[in-house]
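Help!! Second protein's tokens look totally different from the first
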Amino acid sequence: MFDLTKLACVLTGDAQVEVVVSDEGPRVDAHRLVVPSCDDEDLLVAYVDLLAARVAHGDAQAFGDVSAPVERKLAQIIDDRRACERLLATYPGARRYIERWRGRRLPTWHADGTISRGATS
């Protein structure tokens, strides 16, 4: 089993971060990453990757004033996508887990501006 807290500390660059498994997850509470309980270790790691990406690269203030629930959810999805891409640029090994969480392969943006898409899994 992975040490989820150690993983979160590395990914966020914050030694104070801890991971808590609870049915109230996934969410970020200050220095706590709350992941949902499940028996799938890869999925737990994927949730840590996602929440660590939010902490390290997310911009919650960019949609903090959005009050409509649907618009807020869409803003969170867009921000998660951007944050995960930044996390993957630094930690490419996280791709396996994020893909597991998303249930399909993520497109890859190349320096020349092209996009390659993997096959769906």
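Here's the second one for comparison:
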Amino acid sequence: MYLIKLGGSIFAPKTKENFSDQNYLHKFSDLINQIKEPIVLVHGTGNFWHWLVKKYGINRESYQMWLDIEKNLISNISSFFKNYKRLHLEWYQQEKLESNQNYIIGWGMSSDIKVISSDIIFSNLLMYPTITKAFIFSDVPGILDKNNEIIPEIKSPEDASYFWEKEWDVTGSMKSKILELYKYNSWSKKIVYLSDWNDFKTMKRILNGEKDLICTKIIL
């Protein structure tokens, strides 16, 4: 079973409000639907969450607004992944993942007004023994060193510390991604592939298990 994370800002850029890139979702769904392995897809919410919090903050009022936004957003995303069972945000950790079923889950706000990030969801799901490979598709081609070269693999959070301290870290949360992975999964010996969301050729090669890839392997 493959675990895949698709950042919300990829298909719902934060520079726009209440917008999702239908063309990208179509191409991405076509790509992963070619994979024969069952998939657990974790997605973000991009501008839909960003603009809500920017206007109203994180409180009971914004939670009620979020429920309506989330319903429409989930309906839209799910239309591209019709053979995926949606995991419930607040009790996904109690779900038993069936090996012949695809799953999908997006991050958001719980009823007790806590933000459950896609980084936390991804890291928690990675602990499942049924997950054999994991992939993060982000807005960078991999973890970069001080010369802007892709680091082929990292084996500890310290190996990536230069990258997330730089101003050009456009993800804004690479530190969170790496730290969450090692916090929950340092014992697992699993590998997470981090690559560019817009390079479909490389994405396909990574998902197919090919060698000589343009990406960073995060070895846990």
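Reply: Different proteins will give different token patterns, so don't panic. The first strand starts at residue 2 and ends at 6.
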